Amino acid sequence: MTDTAAPGRSLWATALLRLRRNRAAMASLVILALIACLAIFGPRLAPHGYAEVYPEFVKVAPSLRPYPQEDQVIPAAERALKRARVELGEITIDNGTVRIPLTSPREIDPRLARYLDRSDVFTEARIVDLSPDGKSAVAEARVQQLYFLMGTDANGRDLLSRILISLRISLTIGLLATAVALTIGVVYGATAGFLGGRIDNLMMRVVDILYSLPFVFFVILLVVFFGRNVVLMFIAVGAVEWLDMARIVRGQTLSLRRREFVQAAEAMGVSGGAIIRRHIIPNTLGTVIIYMTLLIPKVILLESFLSFLGLGVQEPLTSLGVLIAEGAKNMRNAPYMLIYPAATMTVLLFALNFLGDGLRDALDPKDR
Description:
Layout lengths: L10 H11 L1 H23 L24 H11 L6 E2 L3 E3 L2 E7 L9 H5 L4 E7 L7 E8 L15 H37 L1 H16 L2 H12 L3 H9 L3 H15 L3 H8 L4 H12 L1 H24 L11 H10 L6 H28 L5
């Protein structure tokens, strides 16, 4: 009878098992997956366009009931027909249809219905019951039912649709800048740590010099240079945020280069570039993944800070930072404009940080 050895677990399988046991990290992963789905599909499924303006519904409060509410219909009809130069009779509402008696000393033009169609409140407007002399008639129109579950902003745009598109923009910016930062930082740090000696010393002195540059001033220069191209600007921001990653990977590489598998590869004549690509970088991925989950919220906060200063995303696009800046300006009379974007930002950052902590615990070799 032969003994069959049980198959061993790889380090990544062990780390995944440990991550699954971390409830906070798994809950954060589910929340991030939901946020990603909302960012990708939410703007298409939203009831309103993120740039669609409703002048009749500026700063309306969040409500589960449709707008306009009953007491808003008659004033809206009076405002819509104010320029029509006709006298209005008693306005009545029946089953979502508004009827407005009209009289005029001159013949009534049927095109007056356009005044109602131009309003956000009414649709399918028409002139009916026109008298034989054309001086009296009835205007009919359907009352639109618009839902603003999170209210509207200072320009009359649906806040829910704005938050959904802001999630897409903020996550795109965070992932784009993080990808650039990780690519540069990992390659630079691994190269410096592996080569060592004077080259390592020279490369790290360059990092120290870049650390000394005033960041905000550098970002202002980027805005002047790239204009309002958000993608190019945050690629450039990612090209600055790689400094921490370079130091972390360099430290990992200095310990890895003394390991037996690296020395064996050198003895077999494998080139330095191949050793970095096949052995050094793959063995630093655990640290890189952890840092990535912490760098994304850092970049999102940075984007929020720049947008708060007016240097980030520009209209009609928006981001969480832009929405928070607008909400801060209207905090007294429309607090929901600050509460909803700030809550979204808080949930996103907490989920990323909890996931990062869970990955750090799962990939920590001391706890295996």
